[in-house]
Amino acid sequence: MASNLRPAPYYENYAYRSENVAPPRFTSDYNVYLPHAPPYYPSSVPHYVPRVSTQQSVPVPAVQAKSSAKCTPRTKKALCLLLSIAMLLIGAGICVFLIWYFVTDSCSGSEIQCGTTRVCVTPSQWCDRKQDCPNGEDETRCVRLYGPENLLEVYSSENKDWYSICYDDWNDKYGETACEDLGYNSNTYFNSKAIPVTTGSANILRINTSAGDIDLYKKLYNSNWCPSQQVVTLRCIRCGTSNRPMSPRNRIVGGSDALLGEWPWQVSLHFRGTHFCGGSIITPEWIVTAAHCVEGTRSHPFYWTVYAGILRQSEMIPSKGFRVARIISHPNYDLTSKNNDVALMKLQSPLSFNEFIGPVCLPNAGMMFETDQRCWISGWGAKYQGGNTSKELNAAVVPLINSSICNGRYIYNGIVLPTMICAGYLQGKVDSCQGDSGGPLVTMKSLLWWLVGDTSWGTGCATQFKPGVYGNITVFIEWIYRNMQANR
Ligand code: ARG
């Protein structure tokens, strides 16, 4: 599954070797486009510090010299000297204040900074249902979905723990609110369901129905009595349904031709008119791909076109493509180690879902994918190392490989980081390859297909003891939701 476009070293799957010695051209390209990255991990030292330090060179001695020069009459000398000293002191005071203001971290010890502002709040102010930050950052990340059942959970700052919601008095309006807080649009909302409270899960919130027309989260209160003994599960989008019964076949390297509708979340990302990477649909507007696909000059949305619901590259003509509005690369993506190799693409206009086009489910907190879990990879990458992009979409089965095994001395010897997950076979033969990058590694659990990884790197393709390495999506869900929410 790869491409005939192979000029740049990063496109070749040399994994660590070639990319360690990326040419400088690359770095300057990167600098040109980096300012567009969102400021999610602001430096603790604000960028205006240099301006202050240049002010330190305020020509105080000059001021002093000038003023004392005018003080010729003896009677005025003392007064002038006093004035000069006062001015000096005031100047120094202002300097000290400015330095303190800009250089000191605004928040002390346990406090939390509100976005990029200088406002700080205490940990107990997060998710306390009261907006304490000027832009409300303290109340926007207080819901999550948990486990394969999509259990809805709300964070209580008071008890420093996640709580389920008692199903009594729950309705779809509340469901839509919770989904919007995660970053979905209310028009994708699918359903809320009730599941029995499991024994031992005492953490339940109830809805105070007499609370009037206030925010959902303000209506919730701690209760050890949930009459229905059922809690809320939530699906913000109808995701993870494949429209073909999957038959165990093999052929990407060692995969086989996919059927239309089998991998409806798979997209082909064309850079300047040619297939370059894969991607996965997660909402009508958002695609998950790899950060290394959109490095440097490729970080500009203008050059990309997204094709969904098409198996053959020859059928991907511009009139059928979707334009990209925004590309968000993980701010901590590292070119050399491929740490945090994930990016989001926002489309200019939403995809319409049908039998052949649909989203894959993002994994939830607390989802355990077992070692050896059967997963599928798909893409238009090369069918053998060094080959061209495939004309047709291919797919193959690969089991997950435990990171401690994958990091073994004779395998990747410690370079597989926690943001990565290995999948494939130690004997080789079946693997993703050049051109599959960014594309999905999915698994089926509780009757749904989940996005476990995004194709990232490997040494060669389908080589013995060198399985494929994928971005570990579970680690990125917070980041994905936060960015969807912030760029609605
Ligand atoms: N980096 C490659 C790309 O850009 C994907 C590599 C996957 N390699 C592997 N052996 N699984 O398409």
Bound molecules: arginine
Share of residues in strands: 15-25%
Mean pLDDT over the full residue set: 81
Low-confidence stretches: 1-71
Helical percentage? 10-25%
Main sheet properties? 6 strands, antiparallel, barrel
Q: Numbering strands along the chain, what is their spatial order in the largest sheet?
A: 17-18-19-22-21-20
Q: Round the Cα radius of gyration to an integer and report it.
A: 28 Å
Shape descriptor: globular
What structural class do the secondary elements suggest? alpha+beta
How would you describe this protein?
By secondary structure, the chain is an alpha+beta fold. The chain is 20% helix and 24% strand. The chain has 9 helices and 22 strands. The model is unreliable at 1-71 (pLDDT under 50). It binds arginine (ARG).
Give the structure's gist in a few sentences.
The protein is of the alpha+beta class.
